[in-house]
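Bug #77: duplicate submission created two jobs. Keeping one. Sequence:
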Amino acid sequence: MVTFHHQLTTSRDHQIRNVLICLLIYLSVSLPAQSAEDALVTSARAYVSDFETRFVSVISEERSEQDLRAPIGVGLVPSTLRGVPGGGTLTDNVVTTQERTRRRLRASYIIVRAETGLGWMPFRDVIEVDGRAIPEREGRLLEIFGGQGPADLEQARRLMDESARHNLGDTGRTLNIPVLGLLFLHPDQAGRVAFTYEREERVARRQARVFAFQETGRPTLVRGPYDGELPSHGRVWLEAGTGRVLKTEHIVDAGTMVATVTVTYREEPALAMLVPDRMEEAYVYAGRAGSLRVTATYTNYQRLRVTTDEEIIAPARKPPPSARVDISRCGDVVMRRSDVRCRVAEDQQIDRA
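Kept job's structure:
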């Protein structure tokens, strides 16, 4: 009896062991380890989170070239610079019948951080148009944000409104923030954006892995007319081994217009980090309504001394997540006006209600 019991126990132990082995094999097949591609995206999210804390109150010089193409007689409305310097006025709403119009701008450009996960607020002050300096413009943003006290954001917004008058076309552009494409890799967006590995590619002599992304979460970061959902998609180029973002491509299809913003990054010794180097914007209108293409480069980076983030952030109200890039109440096309100005106007409207 003792021998039989021992053999029975041994047989049962073997059965249990075999079941455990089968279970381990099943789990190893069903639950594979994180792939190298997934690990790289995870590293990129950590990189963007760190970038958000470091790329704060950075001012640079922006040089851009705008190329507007429209059929004769369509009447897209460029702003026209007349008599500057030496008298004259800045005039708007000058209907053009030219098939192609070009413009070169030089501007001071500063990006300040909004609340964590909500990205950045841009401020642009045009100081030169087609090689002609605008009087008393040099250094105005530096005075606003580089002083000892809190920054005057209302004054900075007025400078932005003035500068927007020099843009060709009647499309107000709010997607032209060089670092906007990084938001889709922010840890707060995990689960709201799907990434798919595509290929390997070199960017500025660095080996990168290219991932396509599709915004799947709602509400979307970009809002359309009447608060409509405008899901973004595009690509990111992640440095192999580190997850640093070398390039982004952000696409929004609004039906009547498709906007594509592509940004490449470079090392900046003055800041000891990667910074936007070149931004290419393309706004292609449906049918034969023409297109607007803009190429901008960024140089002369400086970090301003600011005591606290609260001294920079203007809105006292925290905008809802759906208003992170809110253009729903700022016109009937995508990128009508500054997203910051639109959020403030919306908050004021809510307060009055």
